[in-house]
Amino acid sequence: MDPTERRALSGLASLYIFRMLGLFMVLPVLSVYGVEYRHSTPFLLGIALGAYGLSQALLQIPLGMLSDRWGRKPVIFLGLGVFALGSAVAAQTDSVYGLIAGRVLQGCGAIAAATMALMADLTRDENRGKAMAAIGAAIGLSFMLAMLLGPLLAGVGGLAAIFWLTAGLALLGMLMLWRLVPTPAEPARPAVHNREFRRLVGDTGTWRLVAGVFFSHLLLTALFVPLPLVMVRELGMPGAEHWKVYGPLMLGSFLLMLPLMRWAERRDRVSRAMALALPGLACGSAALVLPVGEVGLLALLAVFFIAFNLLEALLPAQLTRSAPARARGAASGLYATLQFLGAFAGGSLGGYLYGAGGAGGVAALGAAVVVAWGLLWWLLQGRALPASR
């Protein structure tokens, strides 16, 4: 990579870490600390967990296409400001409805599509796969840090402490975008042509990728509705001490994921690696219901997180390689729409099923999702995933 590409990668990877850290830190603690909010129920807490995904899903494609016309950085600045405002709203409420409102407002800062497209704009084709893999690794790192910091912060200041930190990180991200990230030579791109967008959405390879991110984030969000409470019961740990489990678990799974990612990229086995991730994701459901003891529980969760982090790294890199240049913003918007729609579906369904049938209901949902994903993967195999370059 040349100096401009390295500068762009470092700035945008840091921006991803700051923003996703704020979203992920809520996952391991909301079901434990959310019971302190007025009017809370398992279903409403599930809605709060995934609510940001609904507004994200509704706005990713419009803002991604807007970034094709106006330029990436103005859209990203606007989104970070809205995200900070939503975080402040969530930090000041004592009602579950106020919490949901703050999370919805957080989601209105829907910048994932524009940010992914900006990274593609600032890298040459031969380096784009490396850049997107690094962004995926940055998301995995933010997830790892969130699992560690979320319980620590909530133990000190409740969910409000997490949301105030999230607002501060969004403002810091705006500063980094201004100071560190280069502006593309052509900041305003032509609007995507209808023919290019129809080609994108009519491609079976595209839908294999975006379906993958939908299902993986559905599984992740649904898992974290009962998981903190299962850990309290099975490990005898209060929520404030869960960082002692999440820290080693996240670090170990992240390090084990890296050689798998390199194997997939270098050997042109991306499609095979994604197919192998399916049974790994099923281990999350197994961890909720199987009587495997403490060691077995941690092993199942480790396999789940290895599979999840691997998909987070590979899926966006493959999509941006296959999308037409002038439709990258729209392609990234489609990807991010399905990603956050999956988070909303996982939180809503997970909350409802946990209230109705306990952890077993959520585990059944996870098993059904893995089967559905495997079937869809097989049905859409008419076009192979693009080879790594």
Question: Which labels suit this protein?
Answer:
disordered C terminus; single chain; 389 residues; mainly alpha; 14 helices
Describe the structure.
With 389 residues, the chain is mainly α. Helix content is 81%, strand content 0%.
| Portion in helices | over 70%
Distance between the termini: 14 Å
Class inferred from helices and paired strands: mainly alpha
Largest sheet: none
- Oligomer status: single chain
**Share of residues in strands:** under 5%
Using only CA atoms, what is the Rg? Answer: 20 Å
Give the overall form.
globular
Number of helices: 14
Topology:
Elements: H1 3-24, H2 30-33, H3 42-70, H4 72-92, H5 96-107, H6 112-121, H7 125-179, H8 194-201, H9 204-223, H10 227-235, H11 243-266, H12 270-289, H13 293-322, H14 328-379
Helix pairs in contact: 1-7, 3-4, 3-5, 3-6, 3-14, 4-5, 4-6, 4-7, 6-14, 7-11, 7-13, 9-12, 9-13, 9-14, 11-12, 11-13, 12-13, 12-14
Please outline what is shown here.
The chain is mostly helical and 389 residues long. It is 81% helix and 0% strand. It contains 14 helices and no strands.
